[in-house]
């Protein structure tokens, strides 16, 4: 009996639902299957293409749309300008800023010796005793000499050779010929000038090879940045808190046995001189020299590590500022990534 009643009630409900659907077809519209509507995705919102979205934005407020595009273009331009300014402020990671000291590493001849090898080749020289031939770079105009010579030693050797080679004066003045002695003295003086000019060319770094020039540059860097010289006029580094409040006895520094060749600033200066030589070769005709490129990259990264260490230990000190000002190093030489292109 209950089964029959349930069946009649379900039939009545279905009939009532069918009458409602027929009366209001817009409300009780059946859903379209997904496989019959390919433009509809699985999200709850309708899918619109980018062209439809842009068209909708323009149609809603054209002024706001174009104003937003102008602001975006202005922001992109400003970012490019700031990026260029930051790159210019960082400087060149390979060469840095050119300073007088760095320029002197490339040419060890002073500005007074302006005669070059090409001008000397184009000039006809006469090997006369009265007029010695011109020199491309006289040793008197240079601060450094080849073959480990120093300026006082060179001048002393020339003067000693002049005294040894001068003609003897006769002790018998009655038989002496003053005119002949004067002529011999004049010839000796001209011969000494010619010999001095020849020796000056030999010891001149303008006629030396690249190895000897690098050695002279290294010696100059040791004399300029070595702590055996800079400790006499630079203020000592302030003691750290650990050493101030430490209960241990302070140890005296070991005295130096010679010139300073291992400090960070000296090694950075030597690496800078070598980097300039390799950079000049790499930027020339040897652009595809892979070995030279690898050596240049190794020296750059080695200098970068030393600069980071010294920036951590000596930042703001007189030793740090003196090295940066003399070598023309910028933040790009120790910050960020250095790439050799």
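^ structure tokens above, recovered residues below v
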């Amino acid at each position: 009996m209950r089964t029959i009643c349930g069946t009649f009630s379900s039939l009545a409900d279905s009939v009532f639902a069918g009458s409602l659907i027929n009366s209001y077809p817009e409300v009780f519209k059946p859903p379209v299957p997904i496989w019959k509507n390919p433009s509809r995705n699985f999200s709850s919102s309708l899918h619109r293409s980018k062209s439809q979205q842009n068209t909708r934005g323009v149609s809603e407020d054209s002024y706001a749309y174009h104003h937003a595009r102008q602001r975006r273009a202005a922001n992109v331009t400003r970012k490019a300008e700031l990026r260029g300014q930051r790159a210019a402020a960082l400087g060149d990671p390979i060469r840095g800023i050119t300073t007088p000291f760095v320029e002197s590493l490339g040419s060890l001849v002073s500005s007074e010796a302006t005669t070059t090898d090409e001008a000397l080749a184009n000039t006809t020289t006469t090997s006369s005793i009265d007029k010695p031939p011109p020199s491309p770079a006289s040793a008197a105009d240079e601060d450094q000499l080849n073959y480990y010579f120093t300026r006082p030693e060179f001048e002393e050797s020339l003067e000693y050779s002049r005294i040894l080679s001068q003609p003897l004066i006769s002790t018998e003045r009655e038989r002496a010929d003053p005119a002949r002695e004067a002529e011999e003295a004049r010839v000796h003086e001209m011969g000494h000038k010619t010999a001095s000019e020849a020796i000056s060319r030999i010891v001149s770094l303008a006629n030396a090879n690249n190895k000897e020039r690098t050695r002279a540059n290294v010696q100059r860097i040791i004399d300029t940045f070595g702590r055996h010289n800079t400790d006499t006029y630079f203020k000592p580094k302030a003691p750290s808190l650990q050493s101030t409040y430490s209960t241990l006895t302070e140890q005296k520094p070991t005295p130096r046995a010679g010139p300073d060749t291992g400090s960070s600033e000296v090694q950075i200066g030597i690496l800078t001189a070598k980097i300039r030589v390799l950079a000049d070769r790499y930027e020339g005709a040897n652009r595809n020299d892979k070995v030279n490129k690898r050596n240049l990259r190794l020296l750059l990264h080695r200098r970068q590590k030393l600069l980071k260490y010294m920036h951590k230990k000596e930042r703001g000190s007189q030793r740090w500022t003196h090295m940066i000002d003399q070598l023309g190093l910028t933040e790009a030489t120790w910050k960020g990534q250095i790439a050799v292109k």
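Confidence is low (pLDDT under 50) at residues 1-8, 109-141.
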